[in-house]
Design brief:
lactosylceramide 1,3-N-acetyl-beta-D-glucosaminyltransferase activity, two-stranded antiparallel ribbon, glycoprotein, Hexosyltransferase, alpha/beta, transmembrane helix, signal, Spore Coat Polysaccharide Biosynthesis Protein SpsA, Chain A, 2 domains
């Protein structure tokens, strides 16, 4: 039998080169594969097979005097009488940075306009902005802060005009978002405990206030308790890549999965849940800087689970269409377009076009075409088209 050794060596060489190429690609992509696939498999296994977060609560429980360092900041701006003597349906905290006055003004002029809500929707919603201290202000001496100069001086003047800034003396940064979350629950406990609901939201979110108010009124009329609703993340693993801003070292959180939580862009809890969260923060280590995850840890400690609402968005924008506006609760990532979106989403034509048999059928088809796409992520799921 004749064997062509030259051809055989050539095939072996091609196989060797192919193997090296494949291994190189795997090595280059392994970190991404490990972060996005392997870690999620481990996380889901932990959540559904083991599913015991009791150890998480025990390990993060600390004495009250130690936990006080996460909340014992002095108020730079405060309005303790904001809710006094009023029947408040919703206390809405908007997380904002000191420099983002244009975003705050846009919210005040659109979905966060308390006068519009009171006159048009007939309920009281209190909208306040949660802030820490700007980096430049923290570096300045005390006498400079008192003089009203710089960013802090601008905030003082802004607050004199609108009386809606709640600010504590910790550095306003991504890694202090948990401190800002704790501030919201503590402020509500002290000054607005009678509010039926608490919402926390980012300042680049759009809230369809008429839809949200109608929904919360229905929930309130039914006397529902342990209420927590938003875009739910289940079985999410900690990010171990040091290149990510969501990086959480093993020493900070050593388990394979987080308790269920809602996206921090915007979620709502009932007043009874807000009170329980306040009390549990008095004995929890809040070093974990991802605020929505910390909320999940707090809720798990009190036995409250988040519920999915298909019209609360995650990190993405909702499609621009009147059939979407008819059901919309929140949409994320709106800054420049917030005025136009508010005008379009609250236009009377929205209800006219989407009502009735033909309107309902038309909107069903539109929502299927807009939401049921394989590359459609982080906003409303496909099932929203069928509800």
């Amino acid at each position: 039998m004749f064997v062509n050794f030259r051809r055989l060596r050539k095939c072996q060489f091609v196989q060797l080169m192919t193997t090296c190429l494949v291994l190189s690609v795997v090595m280059i992509c392994w970190e991404e594969v490990d972060n996005n696939i392997v870690s999620h498999i481990k996380s889901y296994s932990y959540r559904y097979l083991i599913n015991n977060f009791t150890y998480v609560n025990k390990s993060l429980t600390i004495p009250r005097e130690q936990a006080r360092r996460f909340s014992n900041f002095r108020y730079l701006l405060d309005h303790p009488d904001k809710c006094t003597g009023e029947d408040v349906l919703l206390l809405l905290f908007v997380k904002s940075s000191p420099e983002d006055i244009e975003r705050r003004n846009a919210i005040r002029s659109t979905w966060g306009n308390e006068t519009y809500i009171q006159k048009t929707l007939g309920v009281t919603v209190k909208v306040v902005f949660a802030l820490g201290a700007s980096q430049t202000s923290k570096k300045k001496p005390a006498w400079s802060k008192r003089s009203g100069g710089g960013i802090q001086g601008q905030l003082i003047r802004e607050d004199r005009l609108y009386a809606d800034l709640i600010q504590q003396d910790f550095l306003d940064s991504f890694h202090n978002l948990t401190l800002k979350l704790i501030m919201q629950f503590h402020w509500m406990h002290s000054h607005c405990a009678h509010a039926r609901f608490l919402m926390t939201a980012d300042d680049d979110i759009f809230v369809h206030m008429p839809n949200l108010v109608s929904y919360l009124q229905d929930v309130s009329s039914r006397g529902i308790t342990d209420f927590w609703i938003g875009r739910v993340h289940r079985g999410s693993p900690p990010v171990r890549s040091k290149h990510s801003k969501y990086y959480v070292p093993f020493e900070m959180y050593k388990w394979l999965a987080y308790p269920d939580y809602t996206a921090g862009a915007g979620y709502v809890v009932s007043g009874d849940v807000a009170d329980k969260i306040y009390h549990v923060t008095l004995t929890l280590n809040a070093s974990l800087h991802i605020d929505d995850v910390f909320m999940g840890i707090c809720a798990n400690a009190i036995g409250v689970s988040p519920q999915e609402h298909v019209y609360f968005s995650g990190e993405g924008k909702a499609p621009y269409h009147l059939c979407i506006y008819n059901e919309m609760m929140t949409s994320h990532g709106h800054v420049e377009d917030i005025y136009d979106l508010w005008k379009a989403a609250t236009h009377p034509q929205v209800k006219q076009w989407s009502s009735g048999l033909m309107g309902g059928l038309y909107c069903r088809l539109v929502k299927i075409s807009l939401l049921c796409k394989p590359y459609h992520f982080n906003t409303y799921p496909c099932k929203a088209a069928f509800l």
